[in-house]
Amino acid sequence: MQIVPVLHIEQFKGENALVEFYSNDLAAHLKKNEAIVHRPHKHDFFLCVLFTKGSGTHEIDFSSYSIKEGSLFFLKPGQTHSWKFNTQAEGYIFFHTQSFFELSISDIKLNQFPFYYSYKNPPYLNLSPVELQKIASRFNEINEEYHVDTVYKKQKLVSIINLVYIDLSRMYASFDETEKTVSSTYLKILSDLEHIIELFYRTEKKANFYADKLNITTKHLNRVTKSTLGKTTTELITERILLEAKRLMVHSENSLAYVADSLGYEDYAYFSRVFKAKTQVTPLEFKKRYQ
């Protein structure tokens, strides 16, 4: 059962649209899509949004982030989010599919950029006035290019986006003190692990299953997850299960026992203990808090 709507990039196509890319002035985008943006939803694409004005709250997978001048957010496919504004927002937004970027620049993968290489990395930046001026200029160039019909349009857009991501990666490294140089091999293993967890977390909860799928030892897999995210493989699996549990509790009318069973916990009491150990509240308390 679909509990949160998934938005597809085709829904945002404009007159001069490319199939796998979209850009717009933020205020215009929010006005045009006001029936969607304030309710929890997901995307099947990568999204980057910059605020030059405005205030409010951005909720991403049950974590809330303040919106202010200079706020910038990154979202990967599958994340649930919604906006709540206190004052009118201005800025820029663009999003694209993975293939739009990676098929155009063959030697660069999106998960090489620190804000995209894991769902566990902070999904935002707070830019200084100098940084904001520089990045806003790039976003504006992307938006202007998107809205004209000219030759080499896709090539130029991908080139500017790549420059934006490089600049933002440098700023991100300064912002996130835990960020460190991670080998491309470790990044590939982490990316593959997150993909496999996504496929099997409902039924497989032991680290050795995922290590076997990746053809590495459990010890080495834990070394990878500890080096990149500071967490064990088991912690990543449990966090993904609990995230889905929260989504089901808040966005569906299923009983808590049904939620537990659908995630592979036949014993609801055990599931409740696991949930409380990780969140400090029971499933019922969590559900009531969001209601």
UniProtKB/TrEMBL annotation:
Keywords: DNA-binding, Transcription, Transcription regulation. Residues 191-289 form the HTH araC/xylS-type domain. The keyword Cell inner membrane does not apply. This is Helix-turn-helix domain-containing protein. It comes from the Bacteria. It comes from Zobellia amurskyensis. The keyword RNA-binding does not apply. PROSITE patterns: HTH_ARAC_FAMILY_2. One of its GO terms (molecular function) is sequence-specific DNA binding. Pfam families: AraC_binding (PF02311), HTH_18 (PF12833).
